[in-house]
Amino acid sequence: MSSPIIVFDLDGTLVDTAPDLLESLNHSLGAGGVPHTDATGFRSFVGHGGRVMIERAFAASRTPLPVAEHDRLFALFIDHYGENIPGKSLPYPGVLDALDRFTDAGFLMAVCTNKTEGFSRKLLEALDMTRYFAAICGQDTFAFRKPDPRHLTETIAMAGGDRDRAVMVGDSQTDIDTAKAAGIPVVAVDFGYTDRHVREFEPSKIISHFDELTVALADKLIAAAN
Ligand SMILES: O=C(O)COP(=O)(O)O
Ligand SMILES: [Mg+2]
Q1: Are 151 and 75 in a shared domain?
Q2: Which GO terms describe its cellular component (predicted)?
């Protein structure tokens, strides 16, 4: 039997990237003549990668966004964000202890994110976290991405895990919908990036700190799913 696996979302779950994403978003919006957004606006734009973030910010300010302009601003966003990694981004409190705990308990771990794979690897490397993960899969790793459940199930397969003994941990509706569609239990953190409280999306469990993400909880969720 292959190992149990715990799959993490990245932005807003493992790492607090909001200050840097917001700065790069505003750099790009400024170049497009759209007002800067704040932490509240950011929460409703994030979750589907940088392109969608720009698109949503334009829609919110009722400004048309022709494709060529979208491409230009996305390139500015990407360059700015990529150059500044890791910037101010840091793992949330208790993340590293939790990753050590699950390593010691024999779990595999993986990242399934709508960030690009390249930026995800660069960020995790800069924070010395790459070593924990058997797979790091971004929005461009496969031909599909969250909320398509195959992004999650293929991440599990790539990590060598067992989808019948898997748990997803995320911060957004995208993560919860993805896990549910894959038939995998999902723990939602309540401190990430979502404009609506995660309870509305009915995850299997909500936590407010990584100390609550125990091996016993993961075992319990896996047992209940089978
Ligand atoms: O970058 C985004 O928009 C979302 O990234 P996440 O899937 O790691 O939360
Ligand atoms: Mg997230």
Answers
A1: no
A2: cytosol
> For ligand 1, atom 4, which residue shows the shortest CA distance?
47
41-56: average pLDDT: 90
Report the alpha-carbon distance of residue 69 to residue 67 in Å, rounded.
5
Q: Measure the CA–CA gap between 9 and 220, rounded to whole angstroms.
A: 20
Ligand in closest contact with the CA of 22: 1
Over residues 130-140, the mean pLDDT reads: 98
Same domain, 170 and 122: yes
Amino acid at 68: A
d(CA 105, CA 98): 11
Give residues whose Cβ lies within 5 Å of ion ligand 2. 9, 11-12, 171-172
pTM: 0.94
Same domain, 77 and 12: no
Q: Give the mean model confidence (pLDDT) for residues 20-33.
A: 96
Distance CA 155, CA 2 (A): 14
* 49 and 143, same domain (yes or no): no
Query: Which residue segment(s) compose the domain that 177 sits in?
Result: 5-16+89-225
Q: Are strands 108-112 and 15-16 parallel, antiparallel or unpaired?
A: unpaired
Q: How far apart are CA 58 and CA 33, in angstroms?
A: 10
Total domains in the fold of the chain = 2
**Tokens of residue 106, six digits:** 């024999």
